[in-house]
Amino acid sequence: MRGLLPPLSLLALLGAGCDRMPEDPVFVYGNLQHLDGSPYAHVPVALERKAYSRSPYGPPPSAPETFTPYAEFQSDQRGDYVLEVLSGETTRDNIDGFTEYRFRVAAPLEQGHGVYTSFQFWDDAEVPPLRPWEPRLVVASGQEGPVLSFAKAPPPPAKPYSAKLPQILLPGSPEVQEVDSLPPYPVVQLSGADGLVWETHDPASPWQPNPYQLEDFPGVAAQVRAVSMGTWMFEPLGGSDSSVAFRVEWRGPREAIPSGAVRPVSRGAVCYPSPGEGPCPYTDGSLRSVQTKPESRDSGVSEVVVSWEDSVRPRRIVLRNLEVVLGYDPSIHVLLEGSMDGFTWSPLADVLHQNFDPKSLFGIFVNIALDGTEGDSPYGDAPLDVLHRARFFDVPLAGEAPVRHVRLRVQSQDKSRTLPVFALAELSVFE
Fold first, then answer.
1. Is the dihedral of CA 262, 264, 265, 269 positive or negative?
2. 96-137: per-residue pLDDT in tens?
């Protein structure tokens, strides 16, 4: 989901010491480990960098760039490494705003297991150690399809002894509170040739996708991933205060699963508005996430309508990779409606979805520190957003009323505002 950053009173100052000159070096310390925990000794450590701009007065932010090689270093016999970066190459200020840089270090894949960290830092800092995690994904055959079993998530990165947690002051609260790192949990992703078939967060093991979630997409593979995010503050004696805001992501190898065989009645149906020429991209079975208004980076459409020549009786609707332009609503309403004439609409379903936990200190704080890190994986994996999860919906219906049109809309928690649909992969209707 696309989210706007909430206004907050932050006591944690992420700015670096003001005495650094652009040509001064700053250092980042880390550690590489094998899957079994042994040191990843005497290996090259590639540091990559990506820039993205934010200007409070000029045009909207430029699109995030891709990571590019910045420098290469070496781990020692204990797997420890030291990264050296010029202070002026972490953040740049100019008259129109400023440019921030995010850096990335990734461990080599071991039998498909990988771990990386992407981070922003201010002055000398330490990043979490990188040790791959083994989710031990097993795919078995059940009566209604594949059954997936997997291990518990890895523990969150241990805070260094010298580090402190950021503090936050919420509106109306008299006390400051520490913001700990996000604890990781398993995320199961089912991938097809063109995108994600399904995604579920923190499911119990074993977990079984139903036939409607699988649909009839060919070449489906399952994968288990986990993410932790956080911020550490450092106050060295005789030195400048510093901090690092990090994302650590673990991934396991992909395992093929049997394809489904349920074809939706919506396959090939027309839709409105259609973002381009040709068949409707939300009913073509391609799984590609397509913006509803490709000409705009930050807006969408108020509704998506799928239509048929003859009437159908919807018994289930599945939405894949729904993205919505959000305000500050912790919950949103996903509305599905039916019509025979396209003018008079009757409700099919009203799904109240918790977009984020308003009591979560971490979610509020990290939106500012690490916004946009869900696509940082260096392993070719799909984006993984653990802050705003409202992407996939499986909605059973009564299936009683015939319709010729199905409409998707999203509203705010109090239903006073329509939230624009920014992008969608598939809107599948089943009889």
1. negative
2. 667 889 999 999 999 999 999 999 998 999 999 999 999 999
On the CB side of 383, CA atoms within 13 Å amount to 16
Counting the structural domains of the chain, the total is 2
Q: Which residues of 56-68 are buried (b: 16+ CB within 10 A; e: fewer)?
A: eeeeeeeeeeebe
How far is it, in rounded angstroms, from Cα 124 to Cα 90?
12
Which residues are 50's β-sheet partners?
102
Handedness of CA 356, 361, 365, 370 (dihedral sign): negative
Tally of CB atoms within 10 A around 9: 10
Q: Please state whether the predicted TM-score (pTM) of the whole model is above 0.85.
A: yes
243 in the same domain as 205 = yes
Taking 80 as the threshold, does the pLDDT of residue 284 lie above it?
A: yes
426 shares its domain with 396: yes
Look up residue 7 and give its amino acid: P
Q: Is residue 49 in some structural domain? A: yes
Reply yes or no on whether the pLDDT at 57 is more than 60: no
